[in-house]
Amino acid sequence: MRAARPWLLLLPALVVLGGLFLGGIAMAVARSLGITPTSGLSGFTLDAYRAVLSDQDIGLSLALSLWIAGASTALSALLAVPAALALRRVARGPVTFLFQLNLTIPHLVGAIGILYLFSQSGSFARLAHAFGAIERPGEFPALVHDPAAIGILLTYVWKELPFLGLVVLAQLQSLDRDFEAVARSLGASAWQRFRHVTLPMIAPGLVAASALVFAFTFGAYEVPALLGQNHPQALPVLAWRAFTDVDLDARPEAMALSVLIALVSAGLLWLYLRAFRAAPR
Amino acid sequence: MKIRAAAAATCVVLALAGAARADTADGDALIGRDWDAIVETARGGEVNFFLWGGSDTINRYVSDYLGGVLAEEYDITLNRVGLTDTVEAVNIVNGEVEAGVTDAGSVDLVWINGENFRTMRQGDLAWCGYTATLPNDALVDWSNPAVANDFGVPVDGCEVPWNRAQFAFAHDSATLPEPPRDMGALLDWIRANPGQFTYPAPPDFNGSVFVRHVFYHVAGGADRLLGPFDQALYDEIAPQVWTLLNDLEPSLWREGRTYPTAITQLDQMFANGEVAFTFNYDPAQFGLAVDAGIYPDSVRSYGLTDGTIGNTNYTLIPVNSPNKAAALVLQNLILSAEAQLEKARPEVWGATPGIEISRAAPGIREAFADLPSHPSVVPYDELAAAALPELQAEWIAAIEAGWIENVGR
After folding, report:
1. Staple B202 to which of A85, A240, B208, B296, CB 3.0 to 4.6 Å?
2. Which residues on chain B place their C-beta less than 8 Å from a C-beta of chain A?
3. Which residues does chain B have within 8 Å of residue A136's beta carbon, measured at their own beta carbons?
4. Contact residues, chain A to chain B, C-beta under 8 Å
């Protein structure tokens, strides 16, 4: 009876996860293979995967998605660690509140904000015009709908930096500061203390949280759809386009793309986590 | 498993359908029946109307006016379900039918036309052959090919017209008093004024229509392109179009290295003065944007002397709708001269009627003639003087794919 308890408590969550999440993935895999739930195995085909993989845009889209996810994760993590270290010292209050505040703002709203601020007719362009720096909107540098995906990166860094910062901060606050004090008394410089004492202790949380950020930014649709170029498009945008294609025959391709996104994302995460677990401390 | 899935889906749909009194999924039993009997069957039920929800004025017209009349006169509840793209409703019906939900679907009526209509026909998802049962069907001029064909696909009694629409360009008369009036002049203007024009990348609906105008221009008119898709003709004309559009790129916004991804982005850039033109298949939108303070009062709109493309949009009842009687009552209301008049008022929607006004009662005809016009919206009659037909869906799909392949990348 006692042994069964945790399972009983887990059951509702497992039903939701198993039923909806795994069920959804299973349906996507089935439909990507040409199998519809009611028609059995009759339509099994790999055509959708062939069509998706032979599309010359898929490589560009994959590269763009990797760039968006990789760069925004790395930038957020790079900025989050010093921010958390500083926050630990200046202590809570208004700054921590600022960090927590933007966790409540949806990505879409953030993306619109970035659009209003950074587009060629946005607030900064208007300021530049007021100061005589530019004559026409076209002279303001292209920061949204741009080839380097700067607008998308800005949105993600703005959104994920506080998330990573709070995770690292929570970890820092649970640490025993004696270790750092000992290192200092043994003559370690500030950098040495950070590199050999603090960083290894916050690494597990940072790695896990940045893996979440990577998986999310790699698979998310709305920000690249709103702030991206018409070509190349991020993989999730490509999948959405196939799903809303007027031709019903394109639906299996949308499913195949989604399955590929999930596979690539899962594979990269596995490599990433394995690399960090194997890394010497 | 199959039965359980179907049962579960049915439970969900039944829960959604709630108090629907009579299940009228069997539409063929309604065809040709006495209209009063159909109304009595529908009374007390409800109807789920799925339509693009991006315009507050349209939403108000549907929820308040149509929903109000349905509730008062027929005791029918109208549930308006807003969509960002009609294809979402097509996906719902398609998913339901694939899952075996053939008589308890969640969609009773869709606002639709063009490629989505073709998709519904392709998947046998539309209920057909009932239109003559509607009393107000008499107001529809089915002998007009622009009504009897939806983007070149015969309607075949599978949908009922709602509005007519015709493509128009908008410019700010304060900064550009004399805009180019035909496609050749527009292309010259773009070359002479680099950076001030662009169009949304197909498959955006309006961007796709703009590219079709260039297609017509290169082909020397629409006549050769009408009818079923012709690969040889496409291969003759398409490369010239792609060359023209690629050569135009240095003169476009951002030197054509990228394009807006949606018409809303172009509208926003036009509102901010980044580009000199926007365009729309529904010119009433220009007036609404001016009234909302998004565009300046000096915005004017116009058609091209060599014509702009026009179409008709419709409402359609999916084959698995469980409330077909209520959907018929709503369609008949939508077709009524009174509802079409209300919809034509500029402050309500400003939409062009889908019915033939000359067939309406004299009082209604006068009311239509007395409607005030919005200074920013080109009058429909003026546009209609140079109207071009839409192409068949296969043509449109080929042109969109060709643009993405040859110009967009």
Report:
1. B208
2. 2, 5, 85, 87-88, 91, 94, 98-100, 114-116, 118-119, 122-123, 195, 201, 203, 253-254, 257-261, 265, 269, 272-274, 393, 397, 404, 408-409
3. 195
4. 36-38, 57, 119-121, 136-138, 142, 145-147, 225, 228-232, 241, 243-248, 251
Pick the CATH number of B2-163+313-372 from 3.40.50.450, 3.40.250.10, 3.40.190.10, 3.30.70.600: 3.40.190.10
Contact across the interface for B258 and A232, Cβ inside 8 Å: no
**HSE-up of residue B210 (Cα within 13 Å, Cβ side):** 24
Candidates A137, A243, A246; nearest CB to B116: A246
Q: pLDDT means per 10 residues in chain A (281 residues)?
A: 75 85 87 70 79 88 96 96 87 76 90 93 91 87 92 96 92 84 88 89 90 94 93 93 81 91 92 76 48
Question: Which sequence spans correspond to the domains of chain A?
Answer: 1-45, 54-278
Min Cα–Cα distance to chain B from A138, Å: 7
- Residues written for chain B: 409
One CATH from 3.30.559.30, 3.20.20.70, 3.40.720.10, 3.40.190.10 for B166-311+384-408: 3.40.190.10
Taking an 8 Å cut-off on Cβ atoms, the answer to whether A246 and B118 are in contact is: yes
Chain-chain contact of B119 with A36 (C-beta, under 8 angstroms): no
How many CA atoms within 13 Å lie on the side-chain side of A172?
23
Nearest CA in chain B to A230: B261
Which pLDDT score is estimated for B161?
96
Q: What is the C-alpha separation between A146 and A3, in angstroms, rounded?
A: 56
The helix or strand, by DSSP H or E, that contains position B302, with its residue range, turns out to be strand B299-302
CATH class of A54-278: mainly alpha
Kindly state the tokens that stand for A231: 């070509």
Residue identified by tokens 């698995």 is: B320
Are A138 and B272 in contact (CB < 8 Å)? no
How many residues can be counted in chain A? 281
Mark yes or no for CB contact B87/A231 under 8 Å: no
Q: How many CB atoms lie within 10 A of CB B277?
A: 22
**Cβ separation of B195 and A37 shorter than 8 Å?**
no
> Which H or E element spans position A226?
helix A222-227
Domains of chain B, residue spans: 2-163+313-372, 166-311+384-408
What confidence score (pLDDT) does residue A57 get? 84
Q: What pTM, to 2 d.p., does this model score?
A: 0.79
The amino acid occupying position B30 is: L
Cα–Cα dist A211/A209, whole Å: 5
pLDDT of residue B60: 95
Question: Hey, what amino acid is at A212?
Answer: L
E strand or H helix at B164: strand B160-166
Q: What is the pLDDT along chain B (409 residues), one digit of tens a residue?
A: 344 444 444 444 444 444 444 578 888 889 989 999 999 999 999 999 999 987 888 999 999 999 999 999 999 999 999 998 898 999 999 989 988 888 999 999 999 998 899 889 988 999 999 999 999 999 999 988 788 889 888 899 999 999 998 999 999 999 999 999 999 999 999 999 999 999 999 988 899 999 999 999 999 988 888 888 999 999 999 999 999 999 999 999 999 999 999 898 999 999 989 999 999 998 988 998 999 999 999 999 999 999 999 989 999 999 999 999 999 999 999 999 999 999 999 889 888 999 998 899 999 999 998 998 889 999 888 888 888 889 988 899 899 999 999 998 8
Tokens of B153: 């696909």
